[in-house]
Amino acid sequence: MHEDVSRTDDSDATWQHGIFEHAPGKCTREAWDVNEQAHNLTDWSQHYDQYGQGAFYGRIDELHLPGMQVFKEYTSQALDQQCHVWPDSLWIGIPAERQPCRINGYALEAGDIMCQPGGHDFALTTPDTFAIHCLVLRRDWLLEVAGESALTLLEGDPQHTMRLGVTQGTRRGVTFLMDRLIKRLGPGFEVQVHQGILSLAVAAILEEWTPLTDRYPSYHHRRQVVERVREHVNRGEPAPVSIESLCRIAHVSQRTLHNSFTSILGLSPMQFIRFNRLNQVRRRLCDPLSTSTIGQVASDWGFYHLGQFAQDYRRLFGESPSGTQARYRARESVAVKIGGAICVLSRNRLDRSSKPNHFSTAAEMVGLRNKYRLNGDLRAVHAGYRDRRGHIDAHRELLHNRKADDNDMQLLVM
């Protein structure tokens, strides 16, 4: 479940590739499920699997400026992210606080930044309590600002430029400017001034970047091993339950299989299989239109001992399988009922539009809200989140405490 905390749009703006041409637009979205978090980012195609244990909380602060998309993403649990940014663009990602993560299976060193051209698939493996600042720059805007020096990043081999080295001052300065842009959008916001400042920061990256192309000799082979197993599992074929069956799928020895998964994902092969299958089950349970029972869904993905499955599910996601299913079905039921009631409300307003002293829309909606607040389905939704609220508030407090010292950072970019 996500909620738009705030949003500023311009109805006259021209939309191209998800980016406003003439005016800034800002939105903040929160999510309590990794699948919803993956879909909350504008114009990206993403698929998230949760690896970290416990209830999930995610937040995206997103800002659109002419020719660019600026956002900061926070996720409370370790994730496997399959990403695809919109075409004719360049993505730059800067992890906060030098947090360890992997891009396409290769671990970042302290101070590295990430880069990928639009229209290409790439994978991120991120740890618990992870935050990242991101820029997506449209190709024509980038070429206008940086000229042909940007072509190497736009048209070069994505594997060659996925990790870039820049100075620590540039890295911290860019993230500081991005934070200021996201937090201070409001009346009097001078788009051209702030975008001009950010353009200088982008130009600094393009002048300094050095491709970090070192690879351990078996990197490409190990990544292929992981992808073979991933493709087999995602096809929905009978789930492998032994190391021997995984070795046959990947055409490698047990030692190579283990080394491939631990170096590329930081997980053992069997951990990967279990997490992948649990995430697949959760997606099915989150479908409010599904008529399958929990036992049927679990067995479809190779879980035949339902007691052990329920324990593993609760350990990973912080709630029971029945809790997930009931919450999403209740939410769909409430949405349908409220949607139908709003249609009736609108029709009634048209029918009595010539009558004096009828209720205002706001008053009618308050009454409607109070009516359905007493509905058992909506109470089920509230109950499903009540025990998660303390966990969510803890992560919000962590985000608040991570704010940088503005005085020190201002000295950095002066």
Question: Topology, please?
Answer:
Layout: E1 2-8, E2 15-16, E3 19-20, E4 25-31, H1 34-39, E5 45-50, E6 58-65, E7 68-75, E8 79-84, E9 89-95, E10 102-103, E11 106-107, E12 112-117, E13 121-126, E14 130-138, H2 139-146, H3 151-155, E15 163-165, H4 168-183, H5 191-208, E16 210-211, H6 219-234, H7 243-250, H8 254-264, H9 269-285, H10 294-300, H11 306-317, H12 321-351, H13 361-373, H14 376-386, H15 389-401, H16 406-413
Antiparallel strand pairs: 1-4, 2-3, 4-6, 5-8, 6-7, 7-14, 8-13, 9-12, 9-14, 10-11, 10-13, 12-15, 15-16
Helix pairs in contact: 4-5, 4-16, 6-8, 9-10, 12-13, 12-14
List keywords for this structure.
3 domains; Jelly Rolls; alpha+beta; 16 helices; disordered N terminus; globular
Task: Describe the protein in words.
By secondary structure, the chain is an alpha+beta fold. The protein has three domains: 2-211, Jelly Rolls, CATH 2.60.120; 219-279, no CATH class; 323-387. 48% of the residues lie in helices and 20% in strands. It has 16 helices and 16 strands. It has helices spanning 34-39, 139-146, 151-155, 168-183, 191-208, 219-234, 243-250, 254-264, 269-285, 294-300, 306-317, 321-351, 361-373, 376-386, 389-401, 406-413, and strands at residues 2-8, 15-16, 19-20, 25-31, 45-50, 58-65, 68-75, 79-84, 89-95, 102-103, 106-107, 112-117, 121-126, 130-138, 163-165, 210-211. The strands form three sheets. It has a nine-stranded antiparallel sheet. Strands 5-8-13-10-11 form a five-stranded antiparallel sheet. A two-stranded antiparallel ribbon has the order 2-3. Strand 10 and strand 11 (106-107) form a beta hairpin. Helix 4 (168-183) runs antiparallel to helix 5 (191-208), helix 6 packs across helix 8 and helix 12 (321-351) packs across helix 14. 34% of the residues are buried. Residues 1-23, 342-387 and 404-414 have low confidence and may be disordered.
